């Protein structure tokens, strides 16, 4: 069985890597805007980001998930 060397980023490293503040990362996570395949929750609060999946997400345009937060002006 072959083992892979899995590279991870802390939430702080991920924020620096994509050029946003750490608070933005946690806000996006709480609003479910980040793709769930790029991070894992460790314990109650800590997030780690899987570098290979982060790279793939960025290479595919780094789109955030849409949420129900935005409403049309007609509502």
Spatial order of the strands in the main sheet? 1-3-2
Overall geometry comes to globular
**Binned strand content:** 15-25%
Given the helix and strand composition, which structural class is it? alpha+beta
Query: Poorly predicted ranges (pLDDT <50, ≥5 residues)?
Result: none
- Proportion of helical residues: 25-40%
Span between N and C termini?
A: 56 Å
The main β sheet shows up as: 3 strands, antiparallel
Average predicted confidence as pLDDT: 84
List the SSEs and their pairings.
Blueprint: E1 8-10, H1 11-18, H2 22-30, E2 39-42, E3 46-50, H3 51-59
Antiparallel strand pairs: 1-3, 2-3
Helix pairs in contact: 1-2
Kindly describe this structure.
This protein has 75 residues and is an alpha+beta fold. It has a domain at 8-59. Helix content is 35%, strand content 16%. The protein has helices spanning 11-18, 22-30, 51-59, and strands spanning 8-10, 39-42, 46-50. Strands 1-3-2 form a 3-stranded antiparallel sheet. A hairpin with a 3-residue loop joins strand 2 and strand 3. Helix 1 (11-18) packs across helix 2 (22-30). It starts with 7 loop residues before the first strand and ends in a 16-residue tail after the last helix.
